[in-house]
Amino acid sequence: MPPETRNIPFTALGGVFEQDDIDAALKVMQAAAEAGGNFFPLPEETEFQQAFAAHEGAAHAVAVNACGTALDACMMVLGIGPGDEVITTPLTFVCTATCASALGAKVVFADIDPVTLCLDPRQARGKITGRTKAIIPVHFAGLAADIDAFEAITRETGVPVIYDAAHAVGTTYKGRSVGGAGLASCYSFQSNKNITTLGEGGAITTDDAEFAENVRQKKTFGYVYGAQLRVASVGFNYRMTKPQLAVGITQLAKAGRLIADKLAAMQKMQALLGDVDGVVLPGGIEEGHGAHLYIIRTPGIDRSAVAACLKEKFHVGTAHHYPIVWTWEAFAGLDYESRGCDCAVEASEHAVSLPVFAHSTDDDLRYIADALGSTVSELS
Ligand SMILES: Cc1ncc(COP(=O)(O)O)c(C=O)c1O
Question: Is the CB of 67 under 6 A from ligand 1?
Answer without folding.
Answer: yes
